[in-house]
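Forum > Structural Biology > Help requests

Title: Can anyone predict the 3D structure of Rhomboid family intramembrane serine protease?

Hi all, first post here. I have the sequence for Rhomboid family intramembrane serine protease but no way to get a structure on my laptop. I'd be grateful if someone could post the structure tokens.
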Amino acid sequence: MKKKLRLSFNAPAVLTFTALCVIAQLISMLTHGESNRVLFSVYRASLLDPLTWVRCFTHVLGHAGWEHLLGNIMYILILGPMIEEKYGTATTAFIMAATALVIGIINMVFFPGVMLLGASGIVFAFILIASITIREDNTIPVTFILVAVLYLGQQIWQGLFSQDNVSQMAHIVGGAVGAVLGFLLGRAKQKRSPY
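Reply #1:
Sure, ran it for you. Structure tokens for Rhomboid family intramembrane serine protease below:
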């Protein structure tokens, strides 16, 4: 008997995140961008306002438009399932939440006049994690070094010498969070492995 083809919800954390980003973009369209200001971006605000802390996580759901959203989601859909298969759904969700929180806090502390939104920090975290997902004990993959130098070096260069609306800080911090978590997760996985 032939088996029927069926859809597989293969990466729940990544697919749920993608759906939330699309919903946030639709809400932004319906509110003419007001929802981005209130919920889906992070900026310096009173620490006593509960929404300040919510925005530290939800700013990664908001995007400036469909092109911005699709650019980020494409990378997340390419890299995320591999990371989720390797580390699990809960860990992948933790990686995304931790990246969002660190970027949100750094933006509030060091860039008081900047309203930041978008998932590019998560993209860079995934890029760095993906470059070190397969490695041997006590080794640093050359691919990781090349990715770190090329991607993060490019962001530092652009941050110093270009005036655009792209937050190189989010890219750099996202990459740094991804590198740290990638090494920590790899080390923890190796300690649990019986081989």
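The chain has one domain: 12-192. The first helix runs from residue 12 to 30.
Shout if anything looks off.
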